[in-house]
Amino acid sequence: MKIGFIGYGNMASAIATAIVDEKLVPSKDIYASARNYEKLVNNCSKININACKDNKDVIINSDFVILCVKPYMVEKVLEDNLKYLDNKVLISIVAGYDFDKYEKILNGICHHISTIPNTPIAVRSGILICENKHNLSEEELEYFSYLFNKISLMIYVDSNNLSIAGTMAGCTPAFTAMYMEALADAGVKYGLTRTEAYNIVAQMLVGTGKLYLATNEHPGIMKDKVCSPHGTTIKGVSALEKNGFRGSVISAIDEIEK
Q1: Among residues of the chain, what percentage have pLDDT more than 90?
Q2: Shortest CA distance to 7 belongs to which of 45, 61, 43?
Q3: What stretch of H or E contains 195?
């Protein structure tokens, strides 16, 4: 199978890099297009994939087409290339476009599935939110899973939960990076080097996530296990609650979902 990217920004680059690094598809069988061709050529050269001058070339050369454009560009891009999409599989990573929206644009010309990934997919530790409603054949779904299972945790959700699941997966790496930065600042304040602080924080986040996935233990229980009576951790937890830590996190999600 050959795959193509229409739009080659940070997320598309992250997916392509992971696919090549994991040797899921040879770089010679991956194609990409973008508005700035010179920039595209430079970015594609980093992993030796094919830079195409227009979207038509990507579609013609690909079996699976991954749509990675801005939401306002979707209809124009697809309408201009509908005749080339016949018998192709379209994988969307565009926020706000679910199965029903694509059906209206594609008029049944190709099979498609809507997804929302996050940037840690670049290091094969991402999340791919997938809409339960799609029209991929069993064989197509098997290959789709082959592409993404090794580079992400694939989570299927109902159409009405695609937005919130996408927000939880796609936006919160930014919040987490802010949390990392704040914790590291505190470490530096008390004498750690910047490198030491960031490495400690990064591994703590990775380890905590892995611990949950391995045990499925409720986060509240995980927290309680570290909070001894009159201990140091509970003092920090109390300060976070006093300053509205949980409320701030929920409000950030509320703001996105308005």
Answers
A1: 98
A2: 43
A3: helix 194-215
